[in-house]
Amino acid sequence: MTETWDPFGTLRDALWIGGAQWAGKSTVARILARRHGITAYHYDYHDARAHNDRRIASGQSLPGSPDDLWVHASPQDMAASTLAGFPARFEWALDDLRALVSGRPILAEGWGLRPELVAPLIDSPRRMVVMVPTPEFREHQVRVLPRAGAIGAEVSDPARGQRNRLERDRLVAEDAVRNAHALGIRVIEIDGNRDAEAVADLVTDHFSPYLG
């Protein structure tokens, strides 16, 4: 269960962008931060750094070899493992957010900010939006973004590892969409027909009651 303790009221006033990998969440959050003077919290940055220390301190087992992680596991098992790990990782993100105090809302973005985890914290579904790429846009991102086009680890079968990763990402994205729909949280599909500024316009309109 999500710990709703909120000593400075930061979580109560936060805005949230969840969803899938490669949908442009971080870019949109940075645009909104510049436009509206709000503070953007990038989940992926913290999760890959300080949260790893917490993971070790908590006694959680670390992943096996890169081949075990990316090549030998099925995408279904990879997705199930990723989803099972999100709740604990979400609590670490909440600890980061609780320490932030601002005269403006905090905008938190990242794929680990799952609709079912955020929902108990918000007073309205309008405080969250879920961004997911269409299959075509995901393929585009794989072609143009170096970090999307390779898994970033040395494995025995890079092509299979990348296929597994992309299928895992698709399954994790589908889970986010299902939960968002069930909770009445808006889903924005990113198909590449709008540039980042135009997508930011959509998100700004969605969050407009809280931006002033």
UniProtKB/TrEMBL annotation:
InterPro entries from the entry? P-loop_NTPase
Q: Tell me what this protein is called.
A: Uncharacterized protein
What is the superkingdom listed in this entry's lineage? Bacteria
